[in-house]
Amino acid sequence: MLPPLFIVAALLALGARAFYLPGVAPHDYAESELVPLLVNAVSSTETALPFDYYYNQFHFCKPKGDPVAQPESLGSILFGDRLYDSSFELYMNKNTSCNTLCSQSVPKEDAAFINSRIREKYTVHWVVDGLPVAMSRLNQSTNELIYNMGFNLGFISKDGSRTYLNNHYEIQVHYHLDEGKKSPRKFRVVGVTVYPHSVLKIDQKNNCVIQPGTPPLTLSETGDNLITFTYNVYWIRSGISWTTRWDTYLKVTDPKIHWFSLTNSIVIVLFLSGMVGVIMLRALNRDITRYNQLDIEDDIHEDFGWKLVHGDVFRSPIHGQFLAVAVGGGAQLFLMTAVTLVFAVLGFLSPSSRGSLSTVILVLYVCFGSVSGYHSARLYKMFGGQNWKKNVLLSAFLLPGVVFLVFLTLNFFLIAAKSSSAVPFGTIFALLSMWCLVSVPLCFIGAYFGFKKPRIEHPVRTNQIPRQIPEQPLYLRTLPSVLMGGVLPFGAIFIELYFIMNSIWYHKVYYVFGFLALVFVILVVTCAEVAILLCYFHLCAENYHWWWRSFFTSGSSALYVFLYCTYYYATRLNISNSTSTVLYFGWSAVVSALFFILTGSIGFYACFMFVRKVYSLIKID
Ligand SMILES: *[C@@H]1O[C@H](CO)[C@@H](O)[C@H](O)[C@H]1NC(C)=O
């Protein structure tokens, strides 16, 4: 199992680097052509409450007429992008200086608003030619330039008493020029950085170049202020080609750490596979031969171990309907994740097309509604359920409905906080129609085919009277064994989880989908193995209640994911206001719940196949 895994690992890791951008075509600019600069939401990791760039209290300069909202994908809107045009004028390969955007008078209340946003470390986000405008800094250890997306709204004086607003921008656009063959020269944007400054008065004589010691701009909260926004543009020819222009943004984390994470996960898988292998090959084999011999040799029946429960092991669980619905939802999530990762690894989800990842996730989830209906119908029929209408409705509405309700509730918090990331009504309507017009009918169709199929037959018959379950050792009691089960799947993913959290909260581009895909494969294997292992122990202890338990055993890793989110909140984030805290934990809970359904279903199916297999191997009279 290992060598192929490593080969796949290497291929994926290389693949993710070599071609991650076929999805988006480059834009060629002619010399002096206008390169639009778009503005995005102003956000902060300390509050998680972004504002529109043109939110009136900021007093940023608006373009003539009203700012025009730019078309965006569904995922991009859901994840808080709010793109508008701007009045910045960037002409390809034309250095310009002393450009004045506008002068604004800022009343004292708004000055107070801006000053508190500066203290909360709000960051401004611009986009040029699909690239986020970044601040570059030198990584001391590797001596490489790294880009941090966005730039500070302002900064705080050393003693912390004053705040300064950045009102002058030195914009550097790096371009690639394809010289030669054909006559009109083609320019491509390959990197954009900005150096923001706070200046009381710009020095026109010196061509607006900021001299050291220029006094910065403070906004007075006792009287009106007049501020002038200015910018200089420099075009710098670069050797970076268009296809590799994202590399600088992606260099944020050391790939060594991802390899470390992968090795960590592989060790866990090996350890578990070893255990499962030993059980499968030795214990099970021995059991099966012994059981079958006993039957033939004489009539003294000294059954023991898991064979004893053959008459109960396929007894339908209580609340089988909910189990069926949950596993159906899990199958849907599983396919969604797997297909998204395949798209991502093949490079179809370019970071240039904003929100493509989340859009694909949504669309796939909706399209796989039929999978959920089908799986839950088949399982429900197997459990002998009669109320198939209720089952279909639960599959179509329960899980998406709960997530949607939480989403709406959290959205109210965002609206109350006047945050721009509150999802507009049109988008909510679009989501609702996707759900009701696509996902629900597909779920019905899936359920129809699921119910039409013959009932899944069990390899052994179930007795009339349930067996008594003997006293269980402590480690096999429900709670300890379930809590134990979740540790390993969580252990296999937690390092990658850290990077995903960083990319969400610190605006880092996450683009190591090769690693992520492998970690996902490892997660699936670990969940399956843990569930099978504990299932075997329970059956040996003559405890046949395995249906729900197998779901909870691997699903409990979600509990650790939630605890990890709490730990991340406490150690890495500086969120202080209560709305942001509610939002953070609300979303963490939703993600953990979905993770529970996903990992639980993996454990359930693994265990299901295992139990069916072993009981079909023994002879029962
Ligand atoms: C624009 O400014 C940059 C940086 O100062 C310089 O390297 C470049 O040659 C200038 N370009 C033009 C066309 O003057």
Category by helix and strand content: alpha+beta
Instruction: Give the mean pLDDT.
Output: 87
Q: Tell me the overall shape.
A: elongated
The number of distinct structural domains comes to 3
Query: How is the biggest beta sheet arranged?
Result: 4 strands, mixed
Give a nutshell description of this structure.
This protein is an alpha+beta fold and 621 residues long. The protein has 15 helices and 13 strands. Strands 2-13-11-12 form a four-stranded mixed beta sheet. Strands 1-4-5 form a three-stranded antiparallel beta sheet, with no helix packed on it. A two-stranded antiparallel sheet has the order 3-8.
Describe this entry's structure for a reader:
The protein is an alpha+beta fold and 621 residues long. Helices cover 50% and strands 12% of the residues. The protein is built from 15 helices and 13 strands. It has helices spanning 2-18, 74-78, 108-119, 247-250, 255-297, 320-345, 356-367, 369-382, 388-416, 425-452, 478-505, 513-540, 547-555, 557-572, 578-617, and strands at residues 37-39, 96-106, 123-124, 126-128, 131-132, 134-139, 144-149, 151-152, 154-156, 163-165, 168-178, 186-197, 225-237. The chain has a 4-stranded mixed sheet with strand order 2-13-11-12. Strands 1-4-5 form a 3-stranded antiparallel sheet, with no helix packed on it. Strands 3-8 form a two-stranded antiparallel sheet. Helix 9 (388-416) runs antiparallel to helix 10 (425-452). The longest helix has 43 residues, at 255-297. Residues 1-23 have low confidence and may be disordered. Bound molecules: 2-acetamido-2-deoxy-beta-D-glucopyranose. 2-acetamido-2-deoxy-beta-D-glucopyranose binds next to strand 13.
